[in-house]
């Protein structure tokens, strides 16, 4: 199986660090073998250079020509509902769960622990009955 995610104009990527950590950006143009020009006018990320180390490629892609301006990118993002598609991906859900767990207070952690114990007791009881048969 070959590669499916390429660094190309229109590829939607996730910023890994810096000021815009966690935001989606669209590659407008490839500058050289280590940097791209990207922006996201919908989320307020200005057009700037990003190194590949700062980006995670996603499977999402919009149809824009290389070097497209911010207005064209904005229209295509809204037309293709990229935020909705991103929210439905497994990686976005995993990041949301990680963020929710990070923001838990003591009582939330306690409720989570008790729910896990109850679930494990039920599984253990089912396994015990299956072993007897």
Automatic annotation (TrEMBL):
SUPFAM superfamilies, sorted: Translation proteins SH3-like domain
Domain called Large ribosomal subunit protein eL14: residue spans: 46-120
Keywords, ordered alphabetically: Ribonucleoprotein, Ribosomal protein
Signal peptide segment: none
Coiled coil: none
One BP term from GO: translation
PANTHER family xrefs: 60S RIBOSOMAL PROTEIN L14, LARGE RIBOSOMAL SUBUNIT PROTEIN EL14
Family, as annotated: Belongs to the eukaryotic ribosomal protein eL14 family.
The protein, known as: Large ribosomal subunit protein eL14
The organism of origin for this protein: Clytia hemisphaerica
Lineage: Eukaryota, Metazoa, Cnidaria, Hydrozoa, Hydroidolina
